[in-house]
Every structure is written in structure tokens, then in C-alpha cells.
Design a protein that fits this description.
By secondary structure, the chain is of the alpha/beta class. It has one domain: Alpha-Beta Barrel (TIM Barrel), CATH 3.20.20.70. It is built from 12 helices and 8 strands. It has an 8-stranded parallel β-sheet. The longest helix has 17 residues, at about 110-130. The structure holds 1,3-dihydroxyacetonephosphate. 1,3-dihydroxyacetonephosphate binds next to strand 8 and helix 10.
Length: about 280
């Protein structure tokens, strides 16, 4: 069942677990993730970046594929189809018009007032279509690398202003995580996480879930994180497994080649869901 993210994240907030957001990269990944999450009875958010949207042939192609897979595979868990890091109002609107049930507007690179302004516009359109909205503040690391991994920690009062002036459903405050691989150790600011959670009273989102230690993930959930995004770790697990198997397996049919990473990808999904506490919640 395709749903927006509100109910699943509010339940996670109440019951102190987190919903996994897995980025999808192609049809097979979508299928593997859906099959495993159905088996585990976990709600799931399928994240689609603008890059993947272009790679796969547009939002409509992805929407149709997800809806048809849910139907064909008899998926009964709640599934949210979510635009990850939408860069403008127009991109968010395109995703919503194609049928996405949730969008992230990432206007974090702008000054706060402009971030609020763009986010409000997205919320106004999204609400009219029953679509949930995530916004970002601060800068998740991984780009513009400096000694601090490119991280800009979210400010507490700015986070409160963004949430109170926009009507967003959940907030991604950058608090030390990084997209992709870390240079050094992840350094999350848990005190600030807890403060932002209390003052905004919104479900919080942790981007850059790959490479964060299990104990840190658990602590983040206890500090108000309700959605954790994973991509790189799944990519590494899948590609390492494929690289190993293809040394001795001479398959040339792409269906068999892509499936070589299936078990490892599913294992990675399972481990993350166990860690987040999202299993048997639906
Ligand atoms: P990782 O690739 O570091 O897991 O981050 C994924 C993410 O945050 C997508 O928004």
C-alpha cells in the first residue's frame, strides 16, 4: 500500500523506533527491498534522488514501476515513495504530480528566510495532494569536503523557526552525519538532536546512515530520530558480493548478474531494520 510518511513516522516517534529509508537505484533493488521489508513486516520509505529519477526515466516511470511491483508482489506493508533532496519547488511539484506520496525539499543551501519561503510553497502544494514534506537545515557532510567532512551543524533556533513557519511533517537537521563514506569517525551532536526534537516536536530524520556505528544509531533514535536514510552501505554490500561471485560465475544474462548481489542486499536491509527496531510494526 502506497502511503505518505506521516502515520509511519508519528508511530515511530511515539514508540521510539525508526523507519528505514532505502534509496532505490533500479527495478531489481526496488523489488529486493520490497520483498525483504514485506517479509520483515516493516514500514519502508523508498528514496528517489533527482539523479536516480533521470537515470530511470522520470518520476512517472518510477511511480508506475513501484505501484505495479507492489501489486505484482502482493506487498501489504505501508510503502512511502519519497523524493530525496528535491532541489526546487518545481522538482517537488513534478514528483507530486507523478504520484509520489512524500517529498523532501532541500533548500538548506539558502539563507534561512529563503529556505522557509521555498519550503512553505512546497508544503502548500503538497498538503493539497495529501503528500508529506521533509525539509533540511544545516549541511549534511559529504560534499565540499573540508576537515569537518563538509558538515554544517544545524542551529537550534533556526530549526525551530523553519519548523514553526512552514508546516512541514518531519525535519532533517544536519548534526554531523555525512552522505557516503566518512573521513574519520562520525561525530553526531546528540545534545542538539534532543533539543531540536523537544522544541520542534517533529519526527527527525538522520541522513547519511551508512557508516554510523550501531550504538550511535540507537542513541539517535532515543534522541528523536524517526527516519534513517541508507544508500552507500547497501551499494557497497551489493557490489562487493557481485564482484566476488562474478570471479567464478560466468553468467552473462543481466538478470543473473544483478541477482548475484540479492542475498547480500537483503541481508543488509534486514540488519538495518533490526537495528532500527522497525520489524513487526505492521
Ligand atoms: P548514505 O549514502 O551515506 O547512506 O546516505 C543516504 C542518504 O542520506 C540519502 O539521502
Amino acid at each position: 500500500m502506497l502511503v505518505n510518511a506521516c502515520e509511519m513516522l508519528n508511530s515511530a516517534k511515539k514508540e521510539k523506533y525508526a523507519v528505514p529509508h532505502f534509496n532505490i537505484n533500479n527495478l531489481e533493488w526496488t523489488r529486493f527491498i520490497l520483498e525483504e521489508c514485506e517479509k520483515l513486516r516493516t514500514p519502508v520509505i523508498l528514496g528517489v534522488s533527482e539523479g536516480v529519477m533521470k537515470y530511470m526515466g522520470g518520476f512517472k516511470t518510477i511511480y508506475d514501476m513501484v505501484v505495479d511491483l507492489i501489486d505484482y508482489l502482493n506487498i501489504t506493508i505501508p510503502v512511502c515513495l519519497h523524493l530525496d533532496h528535491g532541489s526546487s519547488y518545481e522538482v517537488c511539484k513534478d514528483a507530486i504530480d507523478a504520484g509520489f506520496t512524500s517529498v523532501m525539499i532541500d533548500a538548506s543551501k539558502y539563507p534561512l528566510d529563503k529556505n522557509i519561503d521555498i519550503t512553505r510553497q512546497v508544503v502548500a502544494y503538497a498538503k493539497s495532494k495529501n503528500v508529506s514534506v521533509e525539509a533540511e537545515i544545516g549541511r549534511v557532510g559529504g560534499e565540499n569536503l573540508d576537515n569537518n567532512n563538509g558538515i554544517v551543524y544545524a542551529d537550534v533556533s533556526e530549526s525551530v523557526r523553519l519548523s514553526q513557519n512552514t508546516g512541514i511533517d518531519f525535519l532533517a537537521p544536519a548534526l554531523g552525519s555525512v552522505h557516503g563514506l566518512y573521513k574519520g569517525e562520525p561525530k553526531l551532536n546528540f545534545d542538539r538532536m534532543e533539543e531540536i526534537s523537544k522544541l520542534t516536536n517533529l519526527p527527525l530524520v538522520l541522513h547519511g546512515g551508512s557508516g554510523i556505528y550501531d550504538e550511535q544509531i540507537k542513541k539517535a533514535i532515543s534522541c528523536g530520530i524517526c527516519k534513517i536514510n541508507f544508500n552507500t552501505e547497501l551499494q557497497i554490500a551489493w557490489s562487493n558480493s557481485l564482484r566476488e561471485k562474478i570471479k567464478t560465475d560466468e553468467s552473462y544474462d543481466p538478470r543473473k548478474v544483478i541477482k548475484m548481489g540479492e542475498d547480500t542486499l537483503k541481508e543488509c536491509v534486514r540488519n538495518k531494520c533490526e537495528l532500527l527496531g522497525s520489524i513487526h510494526r505492521v
